[in-house]
């Protein structure tokens, strides 16, 4: 399914490349541009970068190279980006990890939020709360009641400590006052394998990764983590709908565009304009939603406010949980 999703989204690049550009700035690159991606090829961050590269290459008539620099939970690529000249020719397509949660998770992170100019939202999509079919709960309310009354805490898996699925569960448990035991894995695939086998009882997972198991009845979905329901599963509630305690709950994984803090303002606005044009193309919107994600269309100011809110939100969650990690 991941391969199908990647081909579907990459196919949108050609469609969006010919859309007329929204002109908020007269800035144009004087040479080829580069988009640094602090993640491996194939995931949501890489897909967002390749869609944008196709758009700006056509609009500006200059090659745009996508440069994957994976490792260190996104920190390696982010640090590499900051070494480039702050002239608008090198941009970063980052994500919720290195550009939001890392600031509070890592004691010795080599950069701070003020090193970047948040430029534009690109893609965001929900996680989903899924339980093994043996769990005696069909709704979020029943599941919370089960967690609260269990004499032995249920086990939940994640793709790793501090990753979005882990923090989705942490915040859920904080808001509901429930207890569960975290079992971290090296990636979502082994965590899903253990959940399907019934060796752990629940987890928060990317909606697309879990969708085929939900549809086949191998997992029971209780709710999505985003503020609104997903078009892929319109009958599945958002967690914040299900109880007053969860009214503030809103979690999406996201990929977005960042520039250097010292980059020219005109360059930042030009990149933002091209991103908005791409994301408002009806074909792009349809393809993203088919793949379980939404276009995140923002002005530069709106996206800066979004990032600040994400950093603050996850900082509070991480501090309450007492999570502190060291950079290797």
UniProtKB/TrEMBL annotation:
Superkingdom of source: Bacteria
Pfam families attached to this UniProt entry: TctC (PF03401)
Family: Belongs to the UPF0065 (bug) family.
Protein name per UniProt: Tripartite tricarboxylate transporter substrate binding protein
InterPro entries: BUG (IPR005064), Bug_dom1 (IPR042100), TAT_signal (IPR006311)
PROSITE patterns: TAT
